[in-house]
Every structure is written in C-alpha cells, then in structure tokens.
Amino acid sequence: MWRRVLLKDFTCVLQVKSSTFLHQRHFTHRLFTQKLLHGRPQPPWLCAINSRPFKNDSTLEFTGNAVTRTDIKQYLLSKDISIHDGYSSFHIPSIFMDASSRRDRLSLFVDKTTGRFLCKDTLVEGSWEDLQDCLEVMDREEQDHLSPHVLLGYPESKEEQEEHDRELQEVQRIWSSSVPFTDLPEDDAQLVKTMFQITNISNATLKRFGVRLFKPIKSLVFPWFAGPDSSLKGLKLVSAQRTDTDRVTYNEATLPKTSSYYNLFGLPLVGHMDSEVVLTGTELDAMAVSQSTGLPSVALPRGVSCLPPILLPYLEQFKRVTLWLGGDIRSWEASKSFSRKLGLRRCSLVRPGEYQLCAAEALAQGKNLKHILRGSISAEHKSIVSFQQLRDDVYGELLNTEQVAGVKWTRFPELNKILKGHRKGELTVFTGPTGSGKTTFISEMALDLCMQGVNTLWGSFEINNVRLAKVMLTQFAMQRLEKNLEQYDFWADKFEELPLYFMTFHGQQNIKMVMDTMQHSVYLHDINHVVIDNLQFMMGQENLSVDKFAVQDRIIGYFRKFATSCNCHVTLIIHPRKEEDDRELQMASIFGSAKASQEADNVLILQEKKLVTCPGRRSLQVTKNRFDGDVGIFPLDFVKTSLTFCTPLKGKHKLRKVIGKPEGEADEGESKEVQKKEKGAKTKAARSTKSSAAGSETAKK
Ligand SMILES: Nc1ncnc2c1ncn2[C@@H]1O[C@H](COP(=O)(O)OP(=O)(O)OP(=O)(O)O)[C@@H](O)[C@H]1O
C-alpha cells in the first residue's frame, strides 16, 4: 500500500508505504527524490531487488544501500549524536521527541547493516537516506527535533482502504467469536488440547498468552497485540490434523497475510528489564518454554523460514538470546543463520537432540526444558576445534542422513536419486546447448524448491522478470493461463505467497554489485537459494583482454565464496564454451581450468538430442556431485502446455547411475556409453539413409 506524502515544510515528495508492523500508524517511507534535498545520488541498492511482480503491497521493506556500519557511525558522530553500539543496531536519542521528553533514552534504532531506522517511542521508521535527510534538515533549520508527524499521509486508494478495512473486520470478527480457553467447559478444553497434543500446557499459560479457540474451523487463535495501545493487529489460526502414522501436523493461516504478518508472539509479556529471551519457531513452543522455565519467550512470526530485520530492534534489550527453533536440521541451520543477524556474541543455540525435540514436544514428553536450555551451545565460531567439540555435530549428521541430504524435489525424483537433495551452501553449475531449455528447466527446478519453503532470489540478466515470472507461473499452475485468464487471479494469489524475489538487474552487470545485492538479500529475506542466469552477463565489464577463462574462473570463485560464507545455495547457469554438433557436452565444455570445476559442488548438464534412444529428447546429466559422488543421467520429456519437464513413463527410460566413480571417470564412462550408442545409431542411421537414398534413387529411376 504505497502512499505519496509530503515532508512537511520541505515540499519534498516522498513515497510512503503503510505498514501494519507493530504500530497503529507506522510508516515506511522511501525517498525517491532525494536529490531535491541535498543532491545525494540514489544508492544503486535502492533498485537492486524487486519483489514479486504480482504483489502490490510489497513485502519488501527494502531500502538497503551500500553503507557500512563504519559509515553510519561516522556520520552520526559527525552530527554530535551519542551512540550506543548495540547488537544489530546503533541506539541513538530519538530525533522525533523534544529533549525534555526523550531525556537520556536511546529509543531510535539504526540497523547496522542497512541503516534503516525505527523510533520505538514514536514508531516512525524509514531508510538510512531518510534519517540523513531529517538530520540535515534539523541542522539547517537549527532544530533539536522534528515532529513525528513530519510525514503527511494521503489516504490510501479506495480499493486498498477497503481491503485493509475488510481484513481488520475479519480479524475482529474471528477474535470476538473465538472462545478463551478458560471459558470452555473442562471436557471440551481437554479434547482440544489432546487434538493439538498440548495437554501439558496449562489453561493458565494459554490464558496468559491470550490463546483462544475458533470453533467453526476447530483452530487455535494466536493474537497479535502491538502498538502503544496494545491493540489487536492480526492473528494466526492454527489447525491440527492427525496423520496415518498418528503424528499431528499443523496448518496455519494468518491475517493479515503471511508477508505482512510481523508478530513476535509473546512480546507483550516481556518486561522492560528482562535481559534474556528464548526465541522459538512456533507459538506452542514459546508457551511450553515460558511455562516450564519461567523465562521470557517469543515465537517468530514465520517460523524458521525467516527473521525479518524489522523485528531486530525489539530484541535489542536482551543480553542473551537462546534460539530453540525446532528439532530438525532445518531449524538448526536457521538458528545458526539468525544468530548472525542477532549478533553471535549473545546467542546460544539448542542443538537438535537425539530425539529431535522442539520445546512443545519436549514438554509433552516430560523432559526438563531448563536442562535442555542449559545445554545450548554458543553461536560464536571458534577457529580451532577438537573432535570432542565436533562429536555431537557428526552424530547429528549420522542420525539424520535424510535431512542432511537436503530438500528433495517433488517434481524430479530421479534427481533426488542422484543428488539426494538440495543443500545450503553449495554451488551448482548448470549448462546446456544454446536454446536447449536451461532457463526453463532451472526455473521449474527452483520453483519446486521454493514451493517447499526455500527462500529464493533470481538474478535473471538475460530475460526480463516479467517473462521469467510468466514461465514460472505457467509451471506453477501447470497450464497456459492465456487460455484461462479467468483463473489468473487464483494462481497469482497463490504464487504471490511463495518466498520468491527477483533482482531487477538486466543485461551486463558489475559482479560486485550483484554480490552486494545477494549478500543484502540474505540479510533481509534469509535467502537460501540464489539463481544466476547467466554468468556471461557478469563478464562484460571485466577486462577481457586478459584470458576470458581466467575471468570466468575468478567470477565462479566469487560465487563459491558467497555460497560458503552465507551458507546459501547458488545455482549458476553458464553457456558452454564450445558446442560441437556431434558430441555431448562435458565438464570440459564449460570450465576454463580444473580450478573452476573444483569450486563447483554439483555440475549439471542439460543434454540435447544426443541420446539416440529417444530422439529430440533432453536428458539431465549430473557429472559432479560432491555430496556423495553419485553421478548419472536421465531423460526428460518437455510438456509444452505447462512448460514443465517430466520423466518419460515407466519402462520407457532407465536412469543410468554411476555410483562412486571419480568425476572424470564417470564422465568418460557416460560419454563412452553414449558414444557407443551414438556409433550404433549412426551406423543404423547411415544404413537407413543409404536405404532411403537407394529407395529414392529407385523411385527417381
Ligand atoms: N525440452 C524442450 N523442448 C522443446 N522446447 C523447449 C524445451 N525446453 C525449453 N523449450 C523452449 O525453448 C525456448 C528456449 O528455452 P530457454 O530460454 O529455457 O533456453 P536456454 O537454454 O536458457 O536459452 P539460451 O541458450 O538462449 O540461454 C523456450 O521457448 C522454451 O519454452
């Protein structure tokens, strides 16, 4: 919901986005005419990432720029502002309150990574550029503060206002027709608790956290209270379902929708003086921790999928943060990456234990939660460790081989058989002949993962984002929507909910800029898969009088480093350096040197028409797999109506898997096999050409 506003007194046009975050009237504003004020050029960052094209109320609070924390600190010091160096933010006195009311309070938080600010007293927020503008104006006008109402909002469009009102009414309607647990007859309350497997959570705890039951859909209601008046901003509905194996799975829905839902559940119960908190992945876990340990505990709004930086100021007061996000490897990975945002020094992590317990399960099984929390380990990385320290990590990996192997593709079971899954921190290099369908295939492969919650960032330099999103939406809906336009909104609404982001770069790009954007997106959106289409678009600005392949190797090296340091998977599409008509592509067709092929964890090749068994068909070949060494090839059919790939029907194809062979050998083995087949086919083809030639000769005669 974007609004245009005037910066009062300065006749400067600002673009403002209304946000439901934690406050009643809480602006995120972005200066797009900053040159008007003091001619500072717009940071390239500002336009570097775009949200999904289908969104009109972007989830992106993205006003990032290339400032460093040193820049921020120096600038603030140059303005004689006293700074407290916090964990993820600098704390400064609010410039939106007069000196007498702000006293010594440092209630304005400036994010050390992006420079975004939030004043917790007045709830004004904005970008680093906005803060600088405000400070410049204060200097120029010799004022000691600005009014929090310095931004004048125009009403939202009628449509937006109506949607917003409808949402709020729906929140109120559900809330008022839900029943507090304490008002339920004891038998009913017990039944509900059994259904949700929370029999050990007392009615008193449920009451303290304000949990209710919404009977019509048998869901628990978790409220989102926030703002100076602690009013109801939204809610989360959670329903429980029992699976065949007698496990309970939970489904959740939020109002407002997930991308605007920023509830740190449990925050209103935290005292100003509390210096310790336990961060959990679900509301049930937060209640379990609070009940059995008495410690303040808050749940993340979107579980382990992300920790939006906009929430960080609310966690600054804690000297110690224990992350207990769940019991699986994904939660463990998330807790490691969130602790980097929170500041490693103060974070400790609960490692998934032998029985993989989250807090609610631990409580249900009568475990001692205090004891589990005491066993949490420091998030700070030590440069030298002994096996004794690694011992539990190794054990955890052995115990959870399936989870360690990564996220499985739902649409490509053959790929699971070879690669085992999609893992964080790896670099996948993907190639194929020109126009063979590389973009189309990677689009579906990444979409498959994104639909399972893998936060994905696309850098599509070759085709524009609208075209790419159209391909993805077709693959998502599994049909051509141009023929069913009436279904567009239905699919677009669902597609919009995916954790999918696009860089807005197009054409040749500077590698540093791309790297900075990727790094930023990891911070802002907890991106764990970056797709780059394609590497050649990063080479244009390099000095190509030096060896082209040396440049390519160097760029691959940058991506490698990024994948490792940010623990983020990078899929890099590369055009082959040479294509020969009668030969399949090999690793050597892509890489300039052995070094570059060493950098990649996985090398995938989309082979085209080379398998004579199925003419015209593409095959996907894995020629390198660092995880467990399996390589192989399998055919792919293309479904034009949905732009998707699938494996041919059973019996028609065979997965050829080469287990445990070194990369080179496997490659050779594969190509030998292919060559043999090709040779056979060529002879056959030659024979048939001969006979058809003979036939036509005869016909001519
Ligand atoms: N297996 C396939 N069979 C037939 N057509 C395909 C196949 N895969 C993709 N296509 C179509 O081919 C066209 C080119 O596909 P795409 O852009 O994915 O290829 P590419 O390899 O990325 O191209 P480039 O080499 O230019 O980067 C698209 O129109 C796509 O729908």
Number of helices: 21
Mean pLDDT: 79
Radius of gyration of CA atoms, rounded to a whole number? 28 Å
> How many angstroms does the end-to-end distance come to?
77 Å
| CATH homologous group name of the largest domain | P-loop containing nucleotide triphosphate hydrolases
**Low-confidence residue ranges:** 1-64, 659-701
The outline comes out as globular
> Structural class of the helix and strand makeup?
alpha+beta
Portion in helices? 25-40%
Described by strand count, sense and barrel closure, the largest sheet is:
11 strands, mixed
Q: Tell me the number of structural domains.
A: 3
In the CATH hierarchy, the third-tier topology of the largest domain is known as: Rossmann fold
GO cellular component, one term: mitochondrial inner membrane
EC number: 5.6.2.3
Subcellular location: Mitochondrion inner membrane; Mitochondrion matrix, Mitochondrion nucleoid
Keywords: ATP-binding, DNA replication, Helicase, Hydrolase, Isomerase, Lipid-binding, Membrane, Mitochondrion, Mitochondrion inner membrane, Mitochondrion nucleoid, Nucleotide-binding, Transit peptide
